[in-house]
Specification:
344 residues, alpha/beta, Rossmann fold, N-(1-d-carboxylethyl)-l-norvaline Dehydrogenase, domain 2, seven-stranded mixed β-sheet, 40% helix, 18% strand, 6-PGluconate_DH-like_C_sf, NADP binding
Length: 344
């Protein structure tokens, strides 16, 4: 039986790891600080639209606390800007069987990249031979140590999974993906296995471009026009670079058979996304450089303009450095800062 090691048990990793544990699958959550202490002390509190349960979990703070085996699957679910440090911590860990070391995690173990953006796969391939991209549709929130709020029902979320790069999968990969789909759909998660997962991840990247606008204005104003400008610019950049993106129609059809976002008792009807959560926790960093900043990188590489995403990425960095909280600026001020609205 596979054991799933969730590296980064925050909102996404905590939701996945908690659900896998509930389904009776061997699972280890890797966390740190107060969150790790809470998991060890009391377990993981999972709150969703229909239930509020505390799940006893196995939690560790570092790879030295585990003995890896060939049946382990590593699931990277940090933020993208934290991926490099996590990968270098795990890549050279020994993999054991029958009292001997077979090799390292990077040589032998599959690694799933369950995080936003499209950069983590390239980063991971520097260290791990078998990398599987995951396009994450899972509305979860982690603000309190030891607790994750999942706003989806009846399934917890949808995770498209595929070998990266596309076309390199062999029999071992197909076997692993079939096992993973069987296991994770018990969680319950919906797990499509596209031939190429990256067009799905680029479409999700487009959706995530609005994260920083929600985080900065805290939902206090109407930032839809600003997001639309960033998205239109991104679509032009991706088209100019010749990067395939899953169509809106295909995405909508898949979402219709996925899950429904519903309020969680005792929580506001609207809870922020991953960038909002980073500012709300005062983490000191955000992943915007790998979301809006990814569009900037591609634009720079192909000599294309991306002024809106360039400016909002700079605002995100400044907000994280200064400890800015969601709602400290208005949508109107953001529009002026981005040159998308006239100053009064």
């Amino acid at each position: 039986m596979r054991r799933y090691i969730i590296i980064g048990a925050g909102a996404i990793g905590g939701a996945i790891g908690g659900r896998l544990t509930q389904a009776g699958l061997p699972t280890v959550l890797v966390a740190r600080g107060d969150h790790l202490a809470a998991l060890r002390r009391s377990g993981l509190r999972l709150r969703d639209p229909d239930a509020d349960v505390t799940v006893p979990v196995t939690a560790v703070g570092a790879p030295a606390e585990l003995e890896l085996t060939p049946d382990d699957v590593l699931v990277l679910s940090t933020k993208t800007h934290q991926a490099q440090a996590a990968l270098t911590e795990w890549v050279d860990q020994p993999v054991h069987a029958d009292g001997r070391v077979l090799g390292t995690a990077g040589e032998l173990l599959p690694l799933l990249t369950a995080l936003n953006g499209v950069a983590s796969e390239r980063i991971a391939l520097r260290y791990f031979r078998r990398v599987y991209g995951v396009c994450v549709w899972l509305p979860a929130v982690h603000l309190v140590p030891g607790e994750v709020i999942v706003r989806a029902a009846p399934s917890t979320g949808t995770l498209h999974v595929g070998r990266v790069p596309a076309g390199t999968a062999g029999p071992d990969d197909h076997e692993l993906l079939a096992e993973l789909k069987h296991d994770w759909e018990r969680a319950p998660l919906v797990v499509p296995l596209p031939a190429d997962v990256m067009p799905w991840k680029y479409r999700k990247l487009i959706s995530n471009l609005g994260n920083i606008f929600q985080a900065l204005d805290g939902g206090s104003g109407d930032h839809r026009a600003l997001v639309a400008a960033a998205v239109a610019e991104a679509r032009n950049v991706l088209a100019g670079a010749g990067i395939p993106v899953t169509s809106d129609e295909e995405e909508a059809a898949t979402r219709a058979n996925s899950f429904t976002v519903r309020p969680v008792p005792g929580q506001p009807a609207q809870l922020g996304g991953s960038t909002w959560q980073s500012l709300a926790r005062g983490s000191g960093s955000v992943e915007t450089d790998y979301l809006n900043g990814e569009i900037v990188r591609i634009a720079n590489e192909y000599g294309l303009p991306a002024p809106v995403n360039t400016r909002v990425a700079a605002l995100a960095r400044a907000a994280a450095r200064s400890g800015q909280r969601p709602g400290d600026v208005t949508a109107e001020q953001l529009g002026r800062d981005l040159g998308l609205a006239e100053a009064p």
